[in-house]
Amino acid sequence: xxxxxxxxxxxxxxxxxxGDARSRLxxxxxxxxxxxxxxxxxxxxxxxxxxATWCVPCREEFPSLSRLQERNRVAGLRxxxxxxxxxxxRPAVEKFLAERRPAFPNYHRKKGGDDQAxxxxxxxxxxxxxxxxxxxxxxxxxxxSFSGKLPIASAERxxxxxxxxx
Amino acid sequence: xxxxxxxxxxxxxxALSAVALAESPAIGAAAPDFQLTTLDGKSFSLASxxxxxKAVVVMFISTQCPYxxxxxxxxxxxxxxxxxxxxxxxGLNSNKNEDAAKATSHAKAHGHTFPIMKDPGNxxxxxxxxxxxxxxxxIDPQGKVRYEGRIDExxxxxxxxxxxxxxxxxxxxxxxxxxxxxxxxxxxxSIKRV
Lengths: 166, 194
Prior knowledge:
heterodimer, A: six-stranded mixed beta sheet, B: alpha/beta, Glutaredoxin, five-stranded mixed beta sheet, disordered N terminus
Protein backbone atom coordinates (compact mmCIF):
# COMPACT_ATOMS: atom_id res chain seq x y z
CA UNK A 1 0.00 0.00 0.00
CA UNK A 2 1.52 3.27 -1.09
CA UNK A 3 1.96 6.30 1.11
CA UNK A 4 -0.63 8.24 -0.88
CA UNK A 5 -3.17 5.47 -0.41
CA UNK A 6 -2.51 5.34 3.32
CA UNK A 7 -2.84 9.10 3.54
CA UNK A 8 -6.15 9.00 1.68
CA UNK A 9 -7.44 6.26 3.94
CA UNK A 10 -6.59 8.39 6.97
CA UNK A 11 -8.22 11.44 5.41
CA UNK A 12 -11.42 9.52 4.80
CA UNK A 13 -11.24 7.84 8.16
CA UNK A 14 -10.99 4.28 6.91
CA UNK A 15 -8.05 3.43 9.11
CA UNK A 16 -8.64 3.20 12.83
CA UNK A 17 -6.06 4.39 15.28
CA UNK A 18 -3.02 2.18 15.45
CA GLY A 19 -2.98 -0.15 18.42
CA ASP A 20 -0.21 1.71 20.19
CA ALA A 21 -1.94 5.05 19.77
CA ARG A 22 -5.15 3.69 21.24
CA SER A 23 -3.38 2.68 24.40
CA ARG A 24 -1.68 6.01 25.03
CA LEU A 25 -2.84 9.47 25.92
CA UNK A 26 -2.90 11.73 22.87
CA UNK A 27 -1.70 14.55 25.09
CA UNK A 28 -2.71 17.18 27.61
CA UNK A 29 -5.58 19.44 26.74
CA UNK A 30 -7.05 22.69 28.00
CA UNK A 31 -10.04 24.65 26.74
CA UNK A 32 -8.15 26.15 23.81
CA UNK A 33 -6.69 22.77 22.91
CA UNK A 34 -10.10 21.19 23.01
CA UNK A 35 -11.50 23.84 20.70
CA UNK A 36 -8.62 23.19 18.33
CA UNK A 37 -9.18 19.43 18.50
CA UNK A 38 -12.83 19.90 17.56
CA UNK A 39 -11.94 22.43 14.86
CA UNK A 40 -9.41 20.02 13.35
CA UNK A 41 -12.24 17.58 12.80
CA UNK A 42 -14.42 20.07 10.96
CA UNK A 43 -16.26 18.19 8.26
CA UNK A 44 -16.83 15.33 10.68
CA UNK A 45 -19.44 14.87 13.34
CA UNK A 46 -17.59 15.05 16.66
CA UNK A 47 -18.56 13.59 20.01
CA UNK A 48 -16.41 14.74 22.92
CA UNK A 49 -16.70 12.43 25.91
CA UNK A 50 -15.50 13.49 29.35
CA UNK A 51 -14.64 10.66 31.71
CA ALA A 52 -12.50 9.63 34.64
CA THR A 53 -11.08 6.36 35.85
CA TRP A 54 -12.87 6.70 39.18
CA CYS A 55 -16.23 7.13 37.44
CA VAL A 56 -17.99 3.76 37.25
CA PRO A 57 -20.55 4.73 34.56
CA CYS A 58 -17.68 6.16 32.48
CA ARG A 59 -15.81 2.89 32.61
CA GLU A 60 -18.98 1.01 31.82
CA GLU A 61 -19.77 3.05 28.72
CA PHE A 62 -16.25 3.03 27.29
CA PRO A 63 -16.65 -0.17 25.25
CA SER A 64 -19.94 1.03 23.77
CA LEU A 65 -18.28 4.29 22.74
CA SER A 66 -15.57 2.31 20.97
CA ARG A 67 -18.20 0.30 19.13
CA LEU A 68 -20.09 3.48 18.27
CA GLN A 69 -16.89 4.90 16.82
CA GLU A 70 -16.16 1.78 14.80
CA ARG A 71 -19.67 1.56 13.38
CA ASN A 72 -19.66 5.16 12.23
CA ARG A 73 -16.05 5.92 11.46
CA VAL A 74 -16.31 5.68 7.69
CA ALA A 75 -19.45 7.81 7.70
CA GLY A 76 -17.51 10.52 9.48
CA LEU A 77 -17.93 10.26 13.23
CA ARG A 78 -14.96 11.23 15.36
CA UNK A 79 -15.06 10.59 19.10
CA UNK A 80 -12.60 12.48 21.27
CA UNK A 81 -12.15 11.37 24.86
CA UNK A 82 -11.01 13.67 27.65
CA UNK A 83 -9.99 12.26 31.00
CA UNK A 84 -10.66 14.68 33.83
CA UNK A 85 -8.73 12.62 36.34
CA UNK A 86 -6.52 14.52 38.71
CA UNK A 87 -2.87 14.83 37.72
CA UNK A 88 -1.81 12.35 40.38
CA UNK A 89 -4.12 9.78 38.76
CA ARG A 90 -2.43 10.01 35.39
CA PRO A 91 -0.76 6.58 35.77
CA ALA A 92 -4.21 5.10 36.35
CA VAL A 93 -5.44 6.83 33.18
CA GLU A 94 -2.59 5.39 31.15
CA LYS A 95 -3.16 1.93 32.60
CA PHE A 96 -6.87 2.17 31.81
CA LEU A 97 -6.21 3.13 28.20
CA ALA A 98 -3.60 0.41 27.82
CA GLU A 99 -6.14 -2.14 28.98
CA ARG A 100 -9.17 -0.82 27.07
CA ARG A 101 -7.47 0.27 23.84
CA PRO A 102 -10.36 2.55 22.82
CA ALA A 103 -11.05 3.19 19.15
CA PHE A 104 -10.69 6.93 19.61
CA PRO A 105 -8.01 9.33 20.87
CA ASN A 106 -8.01 10.38 24.49
CA TYR A 107 -6.54 13.43 26.14
CA HIS A 108 -5.88 14.28 29.76
CA ARG A 109 -7.18 17.59 31.02
CA LYS A 110 -4.26 19.89 31.59
CA LYS A 111 -3.63 20.69 35.23
CA GLY A 112 -3.85 24.25 36.39
CA GLY A 113 -6.15 27.11 35.75
CA ASP A 114 -9.68 27.58 36.89
CA ASP A 115 -11.51 24.24 37.06
CA GLN A 116 -14.85 25.98 36.89
CA ALA A 117 -13.77 27.99 33.87
CA UNK A 118 -12.91 24.77 32.04
CA UNK A 119 -16.30 23.28 32.86
CA UNK A 120 -18.13 26.45 31.85
CA UNK A 121 -16.18 26.78 28.62
CA UNK A 122 -17.10 23.25 27.62
CA UNK A 123 -20.77 23.81 28.36
CA UNK A 124 -22.37 26.36 30.70
CA UNK A 125 -25.01 23.82 31.62
CA UNK A 126 -22.44 21.26 32.74
CA UNK A 127 -21.91 20.84 36.46
CA UNK A 128 -18.84 18.66 36.16
CA UNK A 129 -20.73 15.39 36.56
CA UNK A 130 -19.39 12.43 34.63
CA UNK A 131 -19.70 10.98 32.15
CA UNK A 132 -20.61 13.97 30.02
CA UNK A 133 -20.64 14.13 26.23
CA UNK A 134 -20.97 17.01 23.81
CA UNK A 135 -22.02 16.50 20.19
CA UNK A 136 -20.87 18.76 17.36
CA UNK A 137 -22.13 18.74 13.76
CA UNK A 138 -19.93 18.77 10.66
CA UNK A 139 -19.58 22.55 10.83
CA UNK A 140 -18.26 22.40 14.39
CA UNK A 141 -21.49 23.74 15.86
CA UNK A 142 -22.41 22.36 19.26
CA UNK A 143 -25.65 20.44 18.82
CA UNK A 144 -26.36 19.09 22.27
CA SER A 145 -24.92 17.62 25.44
CA PHE A 146 -25.57 14.38 27.27
CA SER A 147 -25.32 14.22 31.05
CA GLY A 148 -24.67 10.72 32.31
CA LYS A 149 -24.16 7.62 30.23
CA LEU A 150 -24.81 8.14 26.55
CA PRO A 151 -28.15 6.63 25.48
CA ILE A 152 -26.42 4.80 22.66
CA ALA A 153 -29.41 3.91 20.49
CA SER A 154 -31.01 7.35 20.45
CA ALA A 155 -27.66 9.14 20.34
CA GLU A 156 -26.59 7.06 17.36
CA ARG A 157 -29.82 7.94 15.53
CA UNK A 158 -29.07 11.59 16.15
CA UNK A 159 -25.45 11.16 15.08
CA UNK A 160 -26.50 9.42 11.87
CA UNK A 161 -28.88 12.26 11.04
CA UNK A 162 -25.98 14.67 11.44
CA UNK A 163 -23.73 12.42 9.40
CA UNK A 164 -26.33 12.34 6.65
CA UNK A 165 -26.48 16.11 6.36
CA UNK A 166 -23.73 17.76 4.40
CA UNK B 1 -32.06 33.34 33.52
CA UNK B 2 -33.87 31.51 36.29
CA UNK B 3 -36.12 29.85 33.70
CA UNK B 4 -33.11 28.95 31.58
CA UNK B 5 -31.44 27.43 34.60
CA UNK B 6 -34.55 25.46 35.43
CA UNK B 7 -34.70 24.08 31.91
CA UNK B 8 -31.07 23.02 32.14
CA UNK B 9 -31.62 21.44 35.50
CA UNK B 10 -34.64 19.60 34.14
CA UNK B 11 -32.61 18.28 31.23
CA UNK B 12 -29.94 17.00 33.57
CA UNK B 13 -32.54 15.47 35.82
CA UNK B 14 -34.07 13.59 32.88
CA ALA B 15 -30.69 12.32 31.86
CA LEU B 16 -29.98 11.06 35.32
CA SER B 17 -33.47 9.73 35.95
CA ALA B 18 -33.54 11.79 39.09
CA VAL B 19 -36.47 13.52 40.70
CA ALA B 20 -35.75 17.03 41.84
CA LEU B 21 -38.39 19.37 40.63
CA ALA B 22 -37.95 22.07 43.23
CA GLU B 23 -35.90 25.16 42.56
CA SER B 24 -33.11 26.05 44.90
CA PRO B 25 -34.12 28.70 47.42
CA ALA B 26 -33.43 32.19 46.15
CA ILE B 27 -30.77 34.29 47.78
CA GLY B 28 -32.46 36.16 50.62
CA ALA B 29 -35.33 33.69 50.76
CA ALA B 30 -36.01 31.43 53.72
CA ALA B 31 -33.89 28.31 53.70
CA PRO B 32 -36.07 25.20 53.74
CA ASP B 33 -36.00 23.88 57.27
CA PHE B 34 -35.12 20.30 58.06
CA GLN B 35 -34.65 18.14 61.11
CA LEU B 36 -32.40 15.13 60.90
CA THR B 37 -30.35 12.90 63.16
CA THR B 38 -26.61 13.23 62.93
CA LEU B 39 -24.37 10.23 62.39
CA ASP B 40 -23.55 10.28 66.10
CA GLY B 41 -27.20 10.23 67.08
CA LYS B 42 -27.90 13.87 67.90
CA SER B 43 -30.86 15.79 66.58
CA PHE B 44 -30.15 18.64 64.19
CA SER B 45 -32.67 21.33 63.34
CA LEU B 46 -31.59 23.90 60.78
CA ALA B 47 -33.88 26.56 62.18
CA SER B 48 -32.54 26.06 65.72
CA UNK B 49 -28.92 25.98 64.57
CA UNK B 50 -29.40 29.14 62.52
CA UNK B 51 -30.80 31.00 65.52
CA UNK B 52 -27.96 29.80 67.72
CA UNK B 53 -25.16 30.73 65.33
CA LYS B 54 -23.96 33.61 63.21
CA ALA B 55 -24.19 31.37 60.18
CA VAL B 56 -24.83 27.77 59.21
CA VAL B 57 -23.00 26.25 56.26
CA VAL B 58 -25.04 23.43 54.78
CA MET B 59 -22.79 21.26 52.63
CA PHE B 60 -23.96 18.47 50.36
CA ILE B 61 -21.08 16.04 50.44
CA SER B 62 -20.12 12.55 49.36
CA THR B 63 -17.83 9.81 50.59
CA GLN B 64 -16.93 8.60 47.08
CA CYS B 65 -17.00 11.64 44.82
CA PRO B 66 -13.44 12.78 44.05
CA TYR B 67 -14.57 16.38 43.69
CA UNK B 68 -16.12 16.31 47.15
CA UNK B 69 -13.17 14.41 48.55
CA UNK B 70 -10.81 16.99 47.10
CA UNK B 71 -12.38 19.40 49.57
CA UNK B 72 -12.20 17.15 52.64
CA UNK B 73 -9.30 19.01 54.21
CA UNK B 74 -10.73 22.40 53.28
CA UNK B 75 -14.07 21.44 54.87
CA UNK B 76 -12.30 20.26 58.03
CA UNK B 77 -10.10 23.34 58.27
CA UNK B 78 -12.84 25.85 57.52
CA UNK B 79 -15.26 24.21 59.95
CA UNK B 80 -12.59 24.40 62.63
CA UNK B 81 -11.50 27.95 61.82
CA UNK B 82 -15.03 29.35 61.72
CA UNK B 83 -16.35 27.47 64.76
CA UNK B 84 -14.81 30.06 67.06
CA UNK B 85 -16.47 32.79 65.01
CA UNK B 86 -19.92 31.38 65.60
CA UNK B 87 -20.34 29.46 62.38
CA UNK B 88 -21.42 25.83 62.29
CA UNK B 89 -20.79 23.60 59.30
CA UNK B 90 -23.18 20.74 58.61
CA GLY B 91 -22.63 17.95 56.11
CA LEU B 92 -25.51 16.29 54.31
CA ASN B 93 -24.99 13.01 52.51
CA SER B 94 -27.91 12.54 50.13
CA ASN B 95 -26.39 9.79 48.01
CA LYS B 96 -28.47 6.62 48.06
CA ASN B 97 -25.37 4.50 47.50
CA GLU B 98 -23.50 5.78 50.56
CA ASP B 99 -24.89 4.49 53.81
CA ALA B 100 -24.47 5.83 57.34
CA ALA B 101 -21.65 3.41 58.11
CA LYS B 102 -19.68 4.62 55.11
CA ALA B 103 -20.39 8.24 55.98
CA THR B 104 -19.26 7.65 59.56
CA SER B 105 -15.99 5.99 58.64
CA HIS B 106 -15.35 8.65 56.00
CA ALA B 107 -15.89 11.44 58.54
CA LYS B 108 -13.55 9.76 60.99
CA ALA B 109 -10.87 9.23 58.36
CA HIS B 110 -10.91 12.87 57.34
CA GLY B 111 -11.27 14.51 60.74
CA HIS B 112 -14.75 15.80 60.04
CA THR B 113 -16.04 16.55 63.50
CA PHE B 114 -18.84 18.83 62.32
CA PRO B 115 -22.37 17.37 62.32
CA ILE B 116 -23.02 15.08 59.37
CA MET B 117 -26.38 13.59 58.46
CA LYS B 118 -27.73 11.12 56.01
CA ASP B 119 -30.54 12.61 53.96
CA PRO B 120 -32.92 9.68 53.50
CA GLY B 121 -34.73 9.80 50.19
CA ASN B 122 -32.65 12.87 49.25
CA UNK B 123 -35.53 14.99 50.54
CA UNK B 124 -33.31 17.84 51.70
CA UNK B 125 -31.32 17.75 48.45
CA UNK B 126 -34.63 18.04 46.62
CA UNK B 127 -35.77 20.96 48.79
CA UNK B 128 -32.54 22.78 48.01
CA UNK B 129 -32.38 21.51 44.42
CA UNK B 130 -28.81 20.47 45.14
CA UNK B 131 -27.47 18.56 42.15
CA UNK B 132 -23.78 18.12 42.85
CA UNK B 133 -21.34 17.30 45.58
CA UNK B 134 -19.97 19.48 46.94
CA UNK B 135 -22.59 22.23 46.99
CA UNK B 136 -22.81 24.66 49.88
CA UNK B 137 -25.46 27.01 51.21
CA UNK B 138 -24.82 29.71 53.80
CA ILE B 139 -27.76 30.42 56.09
CA ASP B 140 -27.90 33.49 58.31
CA PRO B 141 -29.41 33.70 61.84
CA GLN B 142 -32.74 34.74 60.34
CA GLY B 143 -32.80 31.51 58.39
CA LYS B 144 -32.22 33.26 55.06
CA VAL B 145 -29.97 31.94 52.31
CA ARG B 146 -27.03 34.27 51.83
CA TYR B 147 -24.77 32.25 49.54
CA GLU B 148 -25.16 29.21 47.31
CA GLY B 149 -22.65 27.37 45.17
CA ARG B 150 -19.10 26.12 45.26
CA ILE B 151 -16.49 26.27 48.01
CA ASP B 152 -13.96 27.71 45.60
CA GLU B 153 -13.04 27.41 41.93
CA UNK B 154 -10.09 25.04 42.16
CA UNK B 155 -10.83 21.51 43.32
CA UNK B 156 -7.49 20.07 42.38
CA UNK B 157 -5.09 22.52 43.91
CA UNK B 158 -5.97 24.24 47.20
CA UNK B 159 -2.81 26.34 46.95
CA UNK B 160 -3.94 27.65 43.58
CA UNK B 161 -7.33 28.92 44.71
CA UNK B 162 -8.00 32.44 43.48
CA UNK B 163 -11.69 32.71 44.31
CA UNK B 164 -12.44 31.43 47.83
CA UNK B 165 -16.14 32.07 47.44
CA UNK B 166 -17.44 30.37 50.59
CA UNK B 167 -14.80 32.04 52.74
CA UNK B 168 -15.56 35.42 51.18
CA UNK B 169 -19.28 34.98 51.81
CA UNK B 170 -18.74 34.01 55.44
CA UNK B 171 -16.29 36.84 56.07
CA UNK B 172 -18.72 39.37 54.62
CA UNK B 173 -21.60 37.99 56.61
CA UNK B 174 -19.61 38.01 59.84
CA UNK B 175 -18.48 41.57 59.16
CA UNK B 176 -22.05 42.67 58.59
CA UNK B 177 -21.35 43.48 54.98
CA UNK B 178 -23.28 42.42 51.91
CA UNK B 179 -22.03 39.25 50.29
CA UNK B 180 -20.52 40.39 47.01
CA UNK B 181 -20.91 37.12 45.16
CA UNK B 182 -24.05 35.42 46.39
CA UNK B 183 -24.22 32.65 43.83
CA UNK B 184 -21.67 30.53 42.03
CA UNK B 185 -22.20 27.41 40.00
CA UNK B 186 -21.52 24.33 42.06
CA UNK B 187 -19.67 21.60 40.23
CA UNK B 188 -18.90 18.02 41.10
CA UNK B 189 -20.47 14.60 41.00
CA SER B 190 -24.20 14.24 40.57
CA ILE B 191 -26.10 13.41 43.74
CA LYS B 192 -27.24 9.80 43.45
CA ARG B 193 -30.95 10.08 44.13
CA VAL B 194 -33.50 7.41 44.89
